[in-house]
């Protein structure tokens, strides 16, 4: 399937989570077998071009895209988790949200020293979570060589923030607005 055909599978929900927001719902793409397989194929091709040695996915939908890519490519998958989910000593990072802070964690044993990692999530908005994940993976010894997303909301500047931090960022599709 073409990227335009994949784009047509993303549902737009107006005024969610608040008035004036156009929510881009990737679950309709994931729920379309051929579309989801095609999206994974396109993303895996980009990760191969970056000579990925591991795929890292951000909880939760980054797990869905990233794990499918890693399995397709025969690569290790590194989960970047919300706090308290990993049963081993972790590396953690706190990062700012629009209203407050959050934390991400990773098992440092899941990251091979110097491994070329491609970071994956379903959507890039402001980039705060992705930037925190990059820093965490770097602390664990990985080399984040690419970030990939199914959807970019370029008006929010997240992909540009990643590029400014030295991490190439690409998405299969972009939607205007918030």
Write structural notes for this entry.
- The two termini are 26 Å apart.
- Helices cover 33% and strands 31% of the residues.
- It contains 6 helices and 9 strands.
- The model has no long low-confidence stretch (mean pLDDT 96).
- It is globular.
- It has helices at residues 3-7, 27-30, 33-49, 61-73, 128-139, 158-164; strands at 11-14, 22-25, 54-58, 77-80, 91-97, 100-106, 116-124, 143-152, 169-174.
- Helix 6 (158-164) links the parallel strand 8 (143-152) and strand 9.
List its salient traits.
178 residues, alpha/beta, Rossmann fold, 5-stranded parallel beta sheet, two-stranded antiparallel ribbon, 6 helices, 9 strands, purine salvage, EC 2.4.2.7, Adenine phosphoribosyltransferase, Ade_phspho_trans
